Amino acid sequence: SSTDTMKVTLYNPPSRANAGADQILCNASSFTLNATNPTFGTGTWSLLSGPGGGSFSPNANTYNATYNGATAGIYVFKWTVSNNTCSNADQVRITNYAAPSAAIAGPNQNVTCDTMTTMAATNPAIGLGTWTFISKSGNGPTPTITNPLLYNSTITGLGPTITGGSEVYTFVWTVSNGTCPSNTDTVRITVYQTPTIANAGPDQFLCNQYSHTM
User: Fold this and answer.
1) pTM listed for this prediction
2) Three-state SS string across the chain, please?
3) Which residue of 38, 172, 187, 194 sits 20 to 30 Å from the alpha carbon of 204, by its own alpha carbon?
4) pLDDT of the residue at 194
C-alpha cells in the first residue's frame, strides 16, 4: 500500500474594499486618499492611470495615505484588500484641475460711426474664456455678443445714447477651469454718436468789407 497527504488551507475573505469618494481639486501638489480601513486583510494603493512621478506617504498600505508629487490631470487609484490569494478592489477618481490662465480682456475701445466691434482678449492657454455684458452708461441699445466663448468675438447692436453724445458699454472676460477660482478682466467700449452733418452756409460775395458774418 501507499499513502499521500494533501493539505487544504481555506483563507477568510478580506474586508470589502472601499476606495472612498471621487475628488475634484484645484492645482494640488498632493492629496489625501480616503479608503475604508479594512478590518480583515491588508490594503494596498496602486495608480492605474494619470500623471506619474508621485509617491504614497507613509506607504501604499495606509488607507488614508497622502499622494505627493501630483500635477494637473485625472488620476485613477485602486485600493486592493487582500488576504493571501483572496482579494477584492475598488477604484477612486481624482480630478486635479490646473489654475486657469490670467484673464486679459484687451484694451478699451472707441467706436465711431459703427454699431459693431471686435473684442481683443488674450486666448487662454489653460481654461475656458467667456464674455459677459455687464452694463451700459445710458439708454442706448443692448448689445449682442456673437460668440461668448470666443476671445475675439464680435459685438453687434452697439449705439450711442438716444439723447446724444456717447454710450459706454462694459464687458467682462472670465477665464475659468473646473473648481479653480476664476480670473476676470474688464474692458470698456465707448460708442460715439455720429455728429450732425456740417453745413457751413452758402458762399458769400462781398465788396471791400473788413469783416463779415459766417
Assistant:
1) 0.79
2) CCCCCCCCCCCCCCCCCCCCCCEEEECCCEEECCCCCCCCCEEEEEEEECCCCCEEECCCCCCCCEEECCCCEEEEEEEEEEECCEEEEEEEEEEEECCCCCCCCCCCEEEECCCCEECCCCCCCCCEEEEEEEEECCCCCCCEECCCCCCCCEEECCCCCCCCCEEEEEEEEEEECCCCCCEEEEEEEEEECCCCCCCCCCCCCCCCCCCCCC
3) 194
4) 72
